[in-house]
Design brief:
Elements lengths: L2 H24 L1 E6 L4 E6 L4 E6 L9 H35 L7
Antiparallel strand pairs: 1-2, 2-3
Amino acid sequence: MDMNKMLQQVQDMQAQMARAQEELAKETVEASAGGGMVTVKATGALEITEIKISPEAIDPDDPELLADMVLAAVNEALRSAQSLAESKLGSAMGGLKGLGLPGL
């Protein structure tokens, strides 16, 4: 096993991961609930950047419904952002398998 080669592969992988994380911070996903009455945008870095609520979604007699729609849209946006992150970072992590390290 060539330690220099392995260290170079680790450094290359770290650089790939850093680039992928920078790209993820710039990408956004969008999710909605209640037939589009609540829309949430999140970055690939799992940060919520925007929440839009349609005036029709605001029912003073049923605030729980609005809360449920916001919660559903936020959770879906975070799931989508996580999926995006896994797809981007997964390709960068693929280099670990080539190192032959146990558990990777």
